[in-house]
């Protein structure tokens, strides 16, 4: 059965938004289910690797058979070594470790504002510094809304640090994770990387560098782990959702969504994620919704939408839009 382009685009948009929203809510819920942050990162990498690494090997088979030297990391990455390392460190390793650690300190409602909300800020700043892109006054105004929203959320938790609170640590980790993903986005744009191959490359880098080192360190007792203390179904769930869902499935659906709606309209659709994930945190996790969170969400969402509506130049489907989004659709 063949579906129309409209049906494929709509289904891709719905799936992408649901997975990105679920990533925030489920990651926060997982912080109280037994696994440690690096355990969840391990499950994510293994889940994504189980699909993407064989796919990458198959993708390069014809070139290998022709005697061409393709890829890197022993044939696991379809990209050369330099972009694989640069993109993999930022988008494959640091983003996951920082984000999952942040959920152990700060609530999902904070992540709703600071993770997807600060992406356009960091992406614009890095694009200005690295790619020498000009920032229009209209986009600068939209970024101003985002900064105000981030300050309302992160500033309040920072003030609570004087009373011994630790939420600010999570907020800082979320902001840093978003900065790393923005750096990955700039790498993709700078090298003109294909979204699927870039996702394969960052997964291969994380698999080769993180997995053996982490397993060795927990094996000799230098790092704590709860892998042996939780049911195997919990590890399998994290591998399926965080790895196969957040990395692989949303990567495909995001690319399909951009192909159908274009980068600007796609970013407007994904601007639903902060609000939906905040509502999910209230509904499923019982988190309170204070006035500063509501105001921060409103400002961040408005800043994203305003910045996108002012975008004039379309960008390739494999790159972030003028305001936000992620190459390959990975949250």
Record the SSE blueprint.
Blueprint: H1 5-30, H2 37-59, H3 61-65, H4 81-102, H5 108-130, H6 137-160, H7 167-191, H8 195-219, H9 232-270, H10 272-285, H11 291-309
Helix pairs in contact: 1-9, 1-10, 2-4, 2-8, 2-9, 4-7, 4-8, 5-6, 5-7, 5-10, 5-11, 6-7, 6-11, 9-11, 10-11
Question: What does this entry show, briefly?
Answer:
By secondary structure, the chain is mainly α. The chain has helices at 5-30, 37-59, 61-65, 81-102, 108-130, 137-160, 167-191, 195-219, 232-270, 272-285, 291-309.
Strand content: under 5%
Measured between the Cα atoms of the first and last residue, the distance is: 30 Å
Extract low-pLDDT stretches.
312-325
Q: Report helical residue fraction.
A: over 70%
CA-atom Rg in angstroms: 19 Å
Mean pLDDT: 85
Characterize the biggest β-sheet. Answer: none
Give the CA-based shape: globular
Q: What's the helix count?
A: 11
Judged by helices, strands and strand pairing, the structural class is mainly alpha
